[in-house]
Amino acid sequence: MANQELLLVGLMVLLILGVSLKFPDFFGLQTLFNVLTASMVGMLFAVGVMLVLVSGGIDVSFLAVGILSAYATVKYGPQDDSAVVVFAISTAIGLGLGLLNAAVVIVARTSVLIATLATSSIYLGAMFAFIGGEVISTLPQPLQTLGTTHLITVKGEVRGTTSLNVLILVVLVVCVLVWAFLHFTIAGRSVFAVGGDAEAASRAAISVPRTRVLVFAIAGAVAGLAGIISVTLSGRADPTTFMGRELDTLAAVVLGGVAIAGGKGTVRGAVLGVLLISLVTASLVPLGIPTIWQRAAVGALLIGGILLQTAISRRQRIRPILDAPAPEVTNA
Amino acid sequence: MSAPIVEAVGVSKRFGGVQALTDVSVAFGPGEVHCIVGENGCGKSTLLKVISGAYRPTSGQVVVDGTAYDHLTPRQALSAGIEVIYQDFSLMPNLTAAENIALPGSVAGGRRLYSRTAARTLAERAVVRLGVEIELDIPVGELTVAERQLTAIARALAHEAKFIAMDEPTTALTWKEVDALFAAVGRLKEAGVALAFISHKMQEIFSIAERVTVLRNGAVVTSGRPDEFTHASLAETMTGRGSQSFDRVAPRNKGRAPALKVTGLGRAPLFADVDLEIGQGEIVGLAGLLGSGRTEIAEAICGVKPAQTGTIEVLGRPTPINALADAVAAGIGYVPEDRLTQGLFLDQPIGDNIVATHLPARRGFLNSRAIERRKARVVSDLRIKLGKLTDPVRSLSGGNAQRVLLGKWLVGEPKVLILNGPTVGVDVGSKFDILGVLNAQSLQGLGVLIISDDVPELISMCHRVLVVRSGRIVRELSGDQLREDTVVAAVTA
């Protein structure tokens, strides 16, 4: 595990222990479930963002892709078909929007940031113009059922119950799939190669455009899935849900050690970054700190994370050259 | 000669308004080392990139095993057994050496799954075959230039290639590693592999080539067996002008403070007890194997990685150097080893690069007329071949980029100039120009320290040569001792 990931784990342990010392109740399944539930959607978005970052580019369209896919699916999709079909439709829309992103990046030869900034605005604009902007609070029946299907439910020490939705399994499976893609397929290694040096990658027979298309397709599909999961969990489809939250995900991913410059990143890091931020938020409540401080805390963590990345990249191996005894000096 | 494995037929290549190659036809036969020589910018690297599929020729064809391609893709080329060791290595800095070595073959072979252990095994075999040692499990970006070069070579050897082209593979290597490379080349020859070899080092060309083709301004001038040429005639064919040499004038440094005096310099665990003195107008060589500490000593003197102990004096004044800025302020200039990454802003204009370290200013505002004058003077003094001053440095050939780097330092009128491999990757014509500039500067009182592997160069240029071994200066050679055999013996002992 990379140093940065270890540090994240360490920070999380410290945070949990610290808060638990004051509030012993904090140390329990309830907190675990709360943090996981709060992280589910974020983890998926983060994995998609991480993938694009590794290939060399900052994607800011993922939330627009996610909410457009989910909102269109809920509004126009089947109302009583199985949840699997609904999920598949949203994922497919996300995949299509991802391909559009790829087309813009490749055809316009522009940076991913600029391209997705543009497509993001277009996606949101198109949603409000053609699909609508009202909140849909009655979801299709299968989604309502799924939203209340829990894997585990535990009773709180003091009050109520806390549940972990079964969708956590979907999130886990996606994370594992993306991880396996990145580490065990040639296409996955090509993503790293392109992010490291696109010119060198193309000389090594890697098709750079094809790799980019693949990356955006996967990232789009994952975002579409994240969108519909978010809608399912919250029980309503609100087109403004994610507005302006892009930087939260980017912050989580950078915290997780994914390099902004490309070529470096892990699923584990991205997931840990999201978990840490959710944990920080969850800790603020029992400590009685207003949640408005959450954003400041995330900002502080982010600066810490970047400082750490710089420190790590500055550290160099030094190979000793000097022999122990001084050799005899012969001056001519 | 038996049927060629790879052949370029009537290849021309234009970049915008520049004709890089004109109707070039070259054939590479099995078991033959074919050296392509010529000055920087003559089109050698472009020719290799056409053959490897990295560039699409404007006209002409590449014939591989009897099949003619108008436009070969990198993937087709790799699948057909064409391997190129690019001058810039073309490695992915974020991947490990093992993966860099293994990945292209897997991609070209259309494989879908990747196994780290299989990649590791393949890479290990390639490195053993080459007979060198490389750290395989850390990102290539953390390796030294030499290790990166060796990685690029190992990558070409990892697959069953039929044709291997090497674009200046030895510039970053020490003699020992060059020997290992040449031994590998010998084995490849016996196995019937066709080899293209680009180098600026005459001894290498004559010791390794079965055939030599000279390019000038993008066209083939002549082609023949090496015994049809002499060093001088080959240099003349490449440059189109007669051979040259310069006179070494003894420095007149009696009574003048040394340009640079270093006493007891040390930094554990890299080097210790380094004493050296460079008189005004003196050119001193620092010779040593790669990893001997020669680069570390230079980097300490110029503040890149400051020393922990010892003193440094410039023109007799003690000057503490804790950062590069201290060295620059004291009049110490440093031209680094890896010209492509360390010394220049590759995507910035040539002119801006020249004045980057020394901008003439008045009351905090840039003096643009003085800046333009400086740019023009450096370009004419160093005879830099360029399109416009506003073109990026990336558009220049290797030797001209090196001259820009040199010019950048001379602009500041340093008292001491430290050059790490000043003519690495530079052709005979430019090499002469660069050494000529250094010679002229030293006559004006500049102290020069040259770190180099090129023994003939050190001998022809330097008044004295210091030998570094295991982080210490172990020998000083001057006068009659300055011969190729004595220097090589002292360095490798």
From TrEMBL, chain B:
<dbReference type="InterPro" id="IPR017871">
    <property type="entry name" value="ABC_transporter-like_CS"/>
</dbReference>
<keyword id="KW-1003">Cell membrane</keyword>
<keyword id="KW-0762">Sugar transport</keyword>
<dbReference type="InterPro" id="IPR003439">
    <property type="entry name" value="ABC_transporter-like_ATP-bd"/>
</dbReference>
<keyword id="KW-0067">ATP-binding</keyword>
<feature type="domain" description="ABC transporter">
    <location>
        <begin position="6"/>
        <end position="242"/>
    </location>
</feature>
<keyword id="KW-1278">Translocase</keyword>
<dbReference type="GO" id="GO:0016887">
    <property type="term" value="F:ATP hydrolysis activity"/>
</dbReference>
<dbReference type="GO" id="GO:0005524">
    <property type="term" value="F:ATP binding"/>
</dbReference>
<feature type="domain" description="ABC transporter">
    <location>
        <begin position="255"/>
        <end position="493"/>
    </location>
</feature>
<dbReference type="InterPro" id="IPR050107">
    <property type="entry name" value="ABC_carbohydrate_import_ATPase"/>
</dbReference>
<protein>
    <submittedName>
        <fullName>Sugar ABC transporter ATP-binding protein</fullName>
    </submittedName>
</protein>
<keyword id="KW-0472">Membrane</keyword>
<keyword id="KW-0547">Nucleotide-binding</keyword>
<dbReference type="InterPro" id="IPR027417">
    <property type="entry name" value="P-loop_NTPase"/>
</dbReference>
<keyword id="KW-0677">Repeat</keyword>
<dbReference type="InterPro" id="IPR003593">
    <property type="entry name" value="AAA+_ATPase"/>
</dbReference>
<keyword id="KW-0813">Transport</keyword>
<dbReference type="Pfam" id="PF00005">
    <property type="entry name" value="ABC_tran"/>
</dbReference>
